[in-house]
Design a protein that fits this description.
- There is one protein chain.
- This protein is of the alpha+beta class and 414 residues long.
- The chain has four domains: 59 residues, no CATH class; 87 residues, conserved putative lor/sdh protein from methanococcus maripaludis s2 fold, CATH 2.40.420.20; 127 residues, Four Helix Bundle (Hemerythrin (Met), subunit A) (Up-down Bundle); 82 residues, Beta Barrel (Elongation Factor Tu (Ef-tu), domain 3), CATH 2.40.30.170.
- The chain is built from six helices and 19 strands.
- A six-stranded antiparallel barrel has the order 2-9-12-11-10-13.
- β11 and β12 form a beta hairpin.
Length: 414
């Protein structure tokens, strides 16, 4: 029975090998804990047709790539230009006629209304001219009355003689009729001359009275006195071209409405629309005011390639002082719910053209041509070439090549 048992046992010649292997396992039990799971995992993967060793190697070596997602945004492309406030009207107030300041009702910072009296001039010689003109008018009126009286007598005499001649021609000679008619015509001419003299005298009086009326210097518009050049007792010369200088009474500015002169660049001229509301930021007041584009020169300045554009700002409360700086934001274009990507994700290739690197569903890079639209400080509109949700490389494109496999990592653009 033993011999038979031995013969049956001997054929198991691999047992020593198994024993040796088991010995090795027992000696390296710790290593076996991770070797066997690795072998089983590899076998499972080899049996599955979805993966291969090559694919595993490629996936593990694919570099990370920062990407952004194509989204829809509302765009408002604005032009921001700084300028300084100017009064709506800004003039020097001159005297029409020379005279000494008799009374003064204004000073620095005085707010005046249109037509309000600012100063009264003393002009004695012009006052005498008015009195002389008044006398001349009175004399011309008396001369007219005398001429009218003489005309009435001469005219009645001629009419009576003419009537008698018709009924009793033998009583009145033709010579007497002719003399009476001549005196009638002479008296009529004297009346006309007296009337013209009276008109001339009245015109001279009206002229001198108008000039004398300029002794009362009134405000031509509602504004603020920003500078004084003369005070009570000073002689103000007439505001002729030869006397222009410091001979003005004061400097008057209309500050309840202010102007902002904006030199709009040529590229932005098509977006300027008269009547459009704009935002005006005054940094010194830390406030934003509403303004309106009211006028343009409608011509490009050839030396600066800009167009004169004016923005009007109401300043009824006089919070803004002329000379303050302000930044005007003029909306040029607007677009709602359009595709957009960051500026760092596109490489410009021409006017309104560019290229982007798109990461497709298999994580491979594709180069696409895109058409660009409105641009803001951080983003740009894409009118064609991309779809909402596409992933595009964010940043430098030179380190990637079309067809390259990457591991996309979505980042925030701002």
């Amino acid at each position: 029975m033993k011999a038979m048992a031995i013969k049956q046992f001997v054929p198991y010649s691999r047992r020593p090998t198994v024993s040796c292997f088991m010995r090795g396992v027992s000696q390296g039990a710790t290593r076996a804990r991770w070797i066997w799971p690795a072998i089983l995992c590899a076998a499972a993967l080899a049996g599955c047709g979805g993966f291969s060793r090559t694919k595993l190697v490629v996936a593990s070596s694919a570099p990370d790539a920062a990407v952004v997602r194509v989204t829809r945004q509302n765009f408002s492309n604005t032009l921001s230009i700084s300028s300084e406030f100017q009064p709506y009207q800004d003039i020097d107030v001159y005297a029409k006629v020379s005279g000494y300041i008799k009374k003064l009702y204004i000073d620095y910072g005085t707010h005046v209304r249109q037509g309000q009296l600012m100063a009264v001039l003393e002009i004695p010689e012009l006052q005498q001219e008015v009195q002389r003109d008044q006398a001349a008018v009175a004399e011309a009126g008396e001369d007219l009355n005398r001429a009218n009286s003489a005309f009435q007598v001469a005219h009645v005499t001629y009419q009576r003689l003419a009537a008698v001649q018709k009924t009793r021609p033998e009583l009145i000679s033709q010579e007497e009729i002719d003399v009476a008619q001549g005196k009638d015509l002479e008296a009529s001419a004297a009346v006309s001359a007296a009337q013209q003299a009276l008109l001339a005298s009245n015109a001279a009086l009206a002229k001198d009275q108008t000039l004398y009326g300029y002794a009362n210097m009134s405000a031509p518009f509602t504004g603020v006195v920003t500078k004084m050049n003369a005070y009570t007792g000073a002689l103000l010369p007439a505001g002729t071209s030869s006397n222009i200088g410091t001979s003005a009474l004061c400097h008057l500015a209309q500050n309840d409405v202010l102007r902002l002169v904006i030199p709009v660049p040529e590229r932005a001229v098509p977006g300027i629309r008269i009547g459009e509301d704009v935002q005006v930021q005054v940094s010194s007041l830390n406030r934003t005011f509403s303004g309106k584009i009211v006028r343009t020169s409608d011509q490009i300045d050839l030396s600066t390639r800009t167009m004169h554009t004016e923005v009007q700002v109401n300043n009824a409360s006089y919070q803004i002082v002329p000379g303050m700086y302000a930044t005007v934001s003029i909306p040029l274009h607007t677009a709602a719910n359009v595709l957009a990507i960051p500026l760092q994700a596109v490489q410009a290739s021409g006017e309104n053209q560019g290229t982007v690197l798109v990461v497709d569903k298999s994580n491979r890079i594709q180069r696409r041509e895109v058409t660009l639209g409105i641009q803001s400080a951080t983003d740009v509109e894409v009118t064609s070439g991309l779809n909402a949700g596409d992933l595009v490389i964010f940043g430098d494109q030179s380190q990637y090549q079309p067809g390259q496999v990457v591991t996309p990592k979505v980042v925030k653009s701002s």
